[in-house]
Amino acid sequence: MAYDNNNVFAKILRGELPCIRLYEDELTLSFMDIMPQSEGHLLVIPKESAETLLDLSEEGAQACIRTTQRMAKAVKAALQPPGIMIAQFNGAAAGQTVPHFHFHVIPRHDGLAMVA
Ligand code: 5GP
């Protein structure tokens, strides 16, 4: 399926929608999730137009995991959660609601799984 240029993360990347920006480099952007599942829930996205992991370039995938690790370490340092969940969904059938690749970084204080 063709990439939807009007999805909310594409608009955030173009500066057309506001977000709480946490980190940015040449290939990735990280910002707070608008409906956090816990305090500190943030997202990491590639700047390239990729809907799912299957569409993402190898360079984009490497950049996203690097930024995700960096942000998980920052969350650990800032909030000291006992656990941090990294979540990622591919396709609406798998629970993806925004059709631009993203990692969730979610501080966890219990053993419950994420509700997609
Ligand atoms: P998905 O279900 O696709 O894995 O997760 C999409 C995530 O994006 C959700 O956690 C949702 O709260 C978040 N989200 C949706 N729209 C916006 C938005 O406009 N701004 C921000 N910061 N997060 C959003």
From TrEMBL:
The chain holds residues 1 to 116 of 139 of the full protein. Residues 8-115 form the HIT domain. A motif (Histidine triad motif) lies at residues 100-104. It comes from Mesopusillimonas faecipullorum. This is HIT family protein.
